[in-house]
Write a structure and sequence with these properties.
The chain is an alpha/beta fold. About 25% of the residues lie in helices and about 25% in strands. The longest helix is centred in the middle third of the chain and has 18 residues.
Length: about 475
């Protein structure tokens, strides 16, 4: 006997249930997220998951078998996954509407099918004809790629079981539904139930599944937060509307490192891989311009060179503005305060705008020194040496703190033709430097300003810093 239906209020972001409507969810702190929902158990008393019981086993008796990953033959995509798809894994790819999720998934499907595998692409958003038009635009012929225009998850899994593919794709999780659950597609109960059913099928058949997911207006994945906990890999496809570049950023990965980034460029024939993103981000950099500094940053395990631009101008109002694009606003406020207090720059009446070129968002504090030098360069209207880069974290007392993996950052800078770097002074005592890179160690922010923006000829200023040659 199925349980009688009841009415409850369910938060559409985290799935919390309440017997009455609440203006703010006590779990996820979301406003106006509770929707009245008819709640009941599965029809016919069926469970979403299998009732088979696996006996407990001692850890020492468990044998770990080497399983080869399924390569998607797209190096940028494989990088984010940690080397390829693990058999039986559940991968969620989310992003804004029109960012290119379906295009990327179709390219991955065609790449795997082109290597002799069988791929099932189930789309609940587009008809087969619409998918065919997109495939023609991308130059995809489609041998070994089976299209399925279906929203019933039971029918999709039945077709996948009959075809025995090496890869399955669901586009998207918000459009499929289970007939045994109440509510329409996209509701909390349907998203949670469909994800659990997909997880059970993927683990049992050892077939990896790629799932496309929508995001809300706040940038969070639509549906309950439990969706991100169920899947094995969570990645976001990011990009500015004015830019043709797309970043696939890994947020969660049970089989590899997190925060890996794959760089793509949206072209007329789909998403093209960017093998050398540092060169792309610096391709249109202006030489000898005040307020421009290059910083070596790490995105996961990949070193990238990004251009940090700053502009200072006298404010027209009583309260100066601080604008940050690509870096954290709190870090910008910290850097401005240290520049004012320690370095003696009078920035109290200056509007300060900082931008990371290319639409990349940098979250690590290693970019602090580059931001400070860019602001000081714009404020003093003096350009820096275009062959000089800066890396280091700034403390509240003005000290330059060491950063991690300095060797990899400098190796990337050397490949791009940069020969000098301003960095933390104490890093030079215990780190080996790559050949062709000279590091000017700065003890403090004031010392770094003297090196980067000298008042005497630059050849004499180089001796002020402690140098190390690779």
């Amino acid at each position: 006997m199925s349980k009688p239906a009841r009415t409850s209020f369910v938060c559409q972001q985290c799935g919390k249930e309440s017997p009455r409507w609440l203006g703010r969810c006590p779990d996820c702190q979301g406003w106006s997220t509770f929707v009245e929902t008819r709640v009941s158990g599965p029809k016919g008393g069926r469970s979403l998951l299998s009732k088979s019981v696996t006996p407990a086993c001692e850890l020492s008796q468990v044998t770990a078998e080497e399983t080869s990953r399924l390569s998607c033959h797209l190096s940028e995509f494989d990088r984010v996954l940690g080397g390829g798809l693990v058999p039986g894994s559940l991968v969620l790819i989310s992003g804004d509407p029109g960012i290119g999720k379906s295009t990327l998934l179709l390219q991955v499907a065609a790449s795997v099918a082109g290597q002799g595998g069988r791929v099932v692409y189930a789309s609940g958003e587009e008809s087969m004809y619409q998918t065919k038009l997109r495939a023609d635009r991308l130059g995809i012929k489609g041998e070994g790629l089976y299209l399925l225009n279906e929203t019933s998850l039971e029918a999709i899994l039945e077709q996948m079981g009959a075809l025995s593919p090496c890869l399955g794709i669901i586009d998207s999780i918000q459009t499929v539904y289970l007939g045994e659950l109440d509510g329409g597609p996209g509701t909390v109960s349907q998203i949670r139930g469909c994800t659990l059913r997909l997880m059970e099928w993927a683990k049992g058949s050892t077939v990896p599944l790629l799932i496309a997911g929508h995001v809300t207006k706040d940038g969070a994945i639509a549906g309950p937060k439990v969706l991100e906990h169920i899947v094995d890999v969570v990645s976001y496809l990011e990009g500015e509307t004015f830019s043709s570049y797309r970043l696939l950023r890994g947020i969660k990965n049970r089989f590899g490192s997190t925060n890996e980034v794959g760089v793509f460029e949206m072209t007329g024939k789909g998403l093209a891989q960017v093998e050398n993103p540092s060169e792309v981000f610096l391709s249109r950099r202006s030489q000898r311009v005040p307020g421009s500094v290059v910083a070596p940053v790490l995105e996961g395990s990949r070193p990238l060179l990004v251009e940090v631009q700053a502009l200072t101008t006298a404010t027209s109002f009583g309260l100066p503005r601080r604008t940050a694009n690509g870096i954290d606003m709190n870090r910008l406020q910290l850097v401005v305060a240290v520049l004012t207090k320690v370095a003696g720059l009078r920035l109290g009446n200056q509007d300060i705008l900082v931008n990371v070129v290319g639409g990349l968002r940098v979250s690590e504090p290693a970019v602090d020194l580059a931001v400070a030098l860019a602001i000081a360069s714009s404020f003093s209207d003096r350009e820096m040496d275009p062959g000089l880069i800066a890396v280091g974290e700034i403390g509240l007392s003005g000290e330059i703190r060491p950063v991690g993996q300095l060797e990899r950052r400098l190796a990337e800078a050397s490949r791009q033709g940069f020969a000098r770097c301003i960095g933390p002074d104490d890093s030079l005592e215990w780190r080996s430097l790559p050949a062709g890179v000279r590091v000017l160690g700065a003890r403090s922010l004031r010392h770094a300003l003297q090196i980067a923006l000298p008042r005497k000829p630059r050849a004499d200023a180089a001796g002020e810093g402690r140098e190390a040659r690779g």
